[in-house]
Amino acid sequence: MEKSTLDVLYVGSGKSAMLINDLDLSKYTVIGVNNSWRLFQKFDIWIHSGDFPRESRPPIKNYDLEISYKQYSGSIANIINVLNIECRSPQHYVGYTIFFQGLYWILNDLKPNNIFLLGFDHDYNPEKLKKWNDNHRPNPQNNFLKPKHQSLQDWSNTFFDGMEKDFFYGHGTPDPIRLGMPHLKNKMVQAIDNASKLGIQIFNLSPVESDFNKVIPRKTI
Length: 221
Known about the structure:
- This protein is an alpha/beta fold.
- The protein has helices at 69-82, 90-94, 98-110, 126-134, 152-159, 181-197, and strands spanning 7-11, 29-33, 43-47, 63-67, 114-118, 201-204.
- 30% of the residues lie in helices and 13% in strands.
- Helix 3 (98-110) packs parallel to helix 6 (181-197).
- The protein is globular.
- The two termini are 29 Å apart.
């Protein structure tokens, strides 16, 4: 009997994530990261960072399975072992952003045939990126350098006021870029290579021609 194909649609918060409206989602196991839950009435798996702000979590559960830090960190360690990779810190090896951590969880736990990406273009507004860097990189670890009583939504609207939005839902911080684009691209090439060793292919469904997307094989929706 021929083995059935498992295709994963892995969705982030970039503007290209809106293209899910052009897809037949029934063909995929749909996995959303962090704020991408906002796109769906119902989806399969939600992966979030350990420091994902509570006020930004879905008010009503709209996913079937939640994957947290403890789960994907264990999966990353297992992949390192399976591929016989020598490294001091498995999470730093894979890239240490929620995108890469979730990606390696998929490789380890779901073992799909194909992984299709949307909304992971890393095409941040340069004006926003400069302001973020110049202001000591507000992020969950430093409480976004905001007053504790201020909501995250109010802070982001104020901090990035007048700037072009680069997330499908409005404004967010460009935290994945903190180590630089060359680092992200190298880790993406590494992930594609590791996936290939496991018999898994990674494709990008996004038409965005960002610097990051240059290293990912592309499929047309």
